[in-house]
Design goal:
single chain; alpha/beta; nine-stranded mixed beta sheet; eight-stranded parallel beta sheet; 9 helices; binds pyridoxal-5'-phosphate
């Protein structure tokens, strides 16, 4: 067998489109705006944006000006909203690129379309009171702090938003994130801003199929070397895994520099379709799995996909699936990256 790339990320554009359609159905008439910040939660912002727009999304949301300019270069006509702060220096570029900005600190930029952001309980970006809209203002928004876990507080934020925007029905009102679209009908307003669910990852940390969502990213590698440890022998830095009986382990050429975090040791991956435990300290460029016998070098390993969920890896790492997804190193050239139309 010839040498393989260390690992490969495969983005399923069909899954993105189907997730967008699911969210559009849940949005019941509100527009779907695709949140593709942080390189599309690690999935690839341009590919994801195109698929989401094809499926009926009407705008793209990012966090920073460079993210928006990157999208603008590929998508000449899409509506692009920069949700985070833009510096004075960046404002000219935002105008030229026909971006839309958020006013969250009292200053309302001129010569670009603006969304006023009111803080209804997130306690982060946002004004405590809405100024009267200037003629550049096209939208009014807020952000939910705990739609995935706290219905009472979410209802309170929805009520505050409804009240604050009562006289502004000519503007596009948008509040809901993925969790809110899936659970709170009253949070939908005129547009919904969905990130995590678009990628087929559950905002609730549960199995995404329960909400009709399909994971869009696969991550595959292979066993580069299988070896037998005798009792007392160990694998990896710090000798954190020591064999207590003759044990076969497989070395996989993926590590924390690829986004397989050190705190994901103990999670499962598939080796030739069978669940196997990741053991020992994860290195920068390699990890080890326990096997039940020797396997050939080149045996396929699925790190994400075929039922191995980023939600599971996140649970092992005691974090949220968002952070695992965003940390996947899909862009540096360490891994191959392909998009398929599944
Ligand atoms: C990231 C973000 C979203 C998307 O949240 P998901 O939970 O990924 O759907 C929506 N609105 C704002 C302001 C955000 O920063």
């Amino acid at each position: 067998m010839g040498r393989m790339e260390r690992s490969c990320f495969t983005l399923d554009l069909g899954a993105i489109r189907r997730n967008a359609e699911t969210l559009l159905r849940a949005a019941e008439g509100a527009e779907l705006w695709a949140v593709v910040k942080a390189e599309g939660y690690g999935h690839g912002a341009v590919d994801v944006s195109k698929a989401a727009l094809e499926a009926g999304a009407t705008a793209l949301c990012v966090a920073t000006l460079p993210e928006a300019l990157h999208l603008r270069a590929a998508l000449r006509n899409a509506r692009i909203l920069v949700m985070g702060p833009v510096s004075e220096r960046e404002l000219g570029e935002a105008r030229v690129a026909r971006l839309e900005l958020v006013a969250a600190d009292g200053q309302v930029p001129e010569g670009v379309r603006v969304h006023l952001k009111i803080d209804t309980g997130m306690g982060r970006w946002g004004l405590s009171e809405l100024p009267s809209p200037t003629r550049d203002v096209v939208g009014v928004m807020s952000h939910l702090a705990s739609a995935e876990s706290d219905p009472a507080f979410t209802q309170l934020q929805v009520a505050r938003f409804r009240e604050a925007t009562a006289g502004l029905s000519s503007l596009t009102r948008h509040l809901a994130n993925s969790a809110a679209v899936l659970r709170f009908a009253e949070a939908r307003f005129d547009a919904v801003r969905c990130g995590i669910a678009l990628y087929g990852i559950s905002p609730f940390g549960t199995d995404p199929s329960h909400d009709g969502l399909e994971p869009a990213l696969r991550w595959e590698s292979y066993v580069a070397l299988a070896k037998r440890l005798d009792p007392g022998e160990s694998t990896g830095y710090g000798r954190r895994y020591v064999a207590d009986r003759p044990t076969w382990i497989g070395v996989v050429p993926v590590g924390y520099a690829d986004g397989f975090r050190r705190d994901m040791s103990g999670t499962d991956v598939l080796v030739d379709g069978v669940r196997r435990r990741v053991v020992g300290t994860i290195s920068m460029d390699a990890l080890a799995v326990v096997l039940d016998g020797p396997v050939e070098s080149g045996t396929p390993v699925t790190l994400v996909g075929d039922g191995v969920l980023v939600e599971e890896h996140a649970r092992v790492a005691d974090t949220i699936a968002y952070e695992v997804a965003v940390g996947l190193n899909t862009r540096s050239g360490r891994a191959r990256r392909v998009a398929v139309d599944g």
